[in-house]
Structure formats: structure tokens, C-alpha cells
Amino acid sequence: MKIIACVKRVPLTDAQVKVGADGASIDPTGLVYSLSFYDELAVEEALKTKEKLGGEVTVLTLGASDASKELRECLAKGADNASILLDPAWAARDARSTAKALAARIVELGAELVFCGRVATDRDQSAVGTMLSSYLGWSCVTDVTKLELTATGGTAQRETEAGIETLAFSLPAVITCDKGLNEPRLAGLKGIMAAKKKTIDETKPLDVESAVKVLKVELPSARKAGRIVGEGAAAVPALMDALRNEAKVL
Predict the structure, then answer these.
(1) pLDDT by residue (tens digit) across 77-123?
(2) What is the Cα–Cα distance from 72 to 77, expressed in whole angstroms?
(3) Can you tell me the distance from the alpha carbon of 96 to that of 88, in angstroms, rounded to the nearest whole number?
(4) Residue-range domains of the chain with CATH
(5) At 6, which helix (H) or strand (E)?
């Protein structure tokens, strides 16, 4: 079975971002990147599936060549191959153009099963996985927290506001992974050394124009400094007055 884990390189969630010189992007200067958290779950589930059903795992991303760092981390954990769809302007792509480019590459690789993170921790859109399944014409189960697979299909559980749903699906399929599905493994020294010797495939992505363009990026207004209105029970009247007349939340 050919299995693909689609991943994304994102800034750390505690990064102090700055607006770029063009006013419509984030300034990458000084940012530290890592694999998106939910994509780590996707990689782990791909590896577990290979161990159970056999086959090979390819880690696929769209981005700059710098993403090779995160891909080598995936190779060190046990992925067999890694591929980058090179696009220096990847950050300006919308979800549609990203999904269409990934789908074209997945078809080329002959995959039968694709794992994605539930959401990327930078844009928080939850769009690429479902769009990907549409372009491929495959089954799709999102926000999966429990998964049982066979060579032809499987069952999955997903948590919803109404409760836990259990769904059956057939392969080929796209699965988006949520918290609770697994615990990502750490790379061992042997895997780290082996990953250094592996070649990362770099290809040009399908030329798809984005349908959405970012016009402006601006930081939220700074919060006002807090203040202490008093201590103990004697401060309650002043606190209530501030909540009612200043914050206007009462």
C-alpha cells in the first residue's frame, strides 16, 4: 500500500509575528518553524498503518526548500520517502490551489491512502484535506480520533458537538487526524543518521492560480493595561462599576 502524509511547515505558535514590508504578508525574518502539530499525528498514523498493513510512506509538502528540515525529521521517524513541491511563494497560496497541486502529485505517486492534519496551526482553516479528497474523488473522513483500517477500507470515529460518530469508508481515502488519535513517536539515533543520507525529491508543483488574494495584514490592537481596583470585599463595588460602565460587559 502506498501511503502519503501531507504536512506543512509552520511558525511556532508562540512566535511574535511582524507584518511584512508589503503590508499583506508576515515577515519571515527571525521566525522559527516546525511541523504543524496535527500533521505530526498524520505522520504517526501513516507509519502505524505501514507497520500493520505493509507498504511505504511518503511525506509530501508544498513550500520552500527549507522544509527539508521537517521532512528529514519525518524520515528519521520511519517514513520511506519525502517530496517537496517547490514554491517560493507558497505562503501566498490559498487552500484551493494548494490542494489541487497536492492532488496532482498524489496521483503521480500512485497513493491509495492519504493522511492530513485536521488543521494547520498557522491559518487554522481546516480546508486542504477536504478539498484534496474532492479533487482526487476519494472517500474522506475528517477530525478522526480513532481508526481501524484494512487493505480495502476501514471504520473511523470522530467527535462532534452531537456526540461521537462512527463511519465506515472504502479506500482510496483521505483521513484528517485530530487529537487523541495517537501519540507521535520520537526519532531514534539510528533513524536520524539514516535520514541524513536519504534524498528528498524536489519537483515543481502544478501551476494553479490562487482564487483568493490577501490584501492587507495587520496586528490586533494592543490590550489596555490592567489595573487593581482594590482588595477584598471592599473592592467589589468598584469592580462592578468598572465592569458595567467601562468594560460594558454587565
Answers:
(1) 999 999 999 998 898 899 999 999 999 999 999 999 999 999 999 98
(2) 9
(3) 17
(4) 2-203 (3.40.50.620), 224-250 (no CATH)
(5) strand 2-6
Residues 6+ away with beta carbon under 8 Å from 32: 11, 12, 15
Closest CA to 166 of 149, 185, 145: 145
Amino acid at 49: T
Q: What are phi and psi of 22, to 5 degrees?
A: -80, -10
Contact 146, 181 (CB under 8 A): yes
- Residue count (the chain): 250
* Burial letters 54-74, b for 16+ CB under 10 A, else e: ebebbbbbbbbeebbebbbbb
User: Cell 505501514 identifies what position?
Assistant: 50
As beta bridge partners, residue 113 has 3, 173
Cα–Cα distance for residue pair 15/141, rounded to 1 Å: 31
pTM assigned to the model: 0.87
Q: Per the structure block, which three cell numbers stand in for 136? A: 482526487
* Cβ–Cβ under 8 Å, residues 250 and 243: yes
- State how beta strands 139-149 and 153-160 pair: antiparallel
Q: Which residues make Cβ contacts (< 8 Å) with residue 110, sequence separation at least 6? A: 2
Reported confidence tier of residue 208, pLDDT bands at 50, 70, 90: very high
Question: Does the N-terminal peptide bond of residue 172 adopt cis geometry, omega within 30 degrees of 0?
Answer: yes
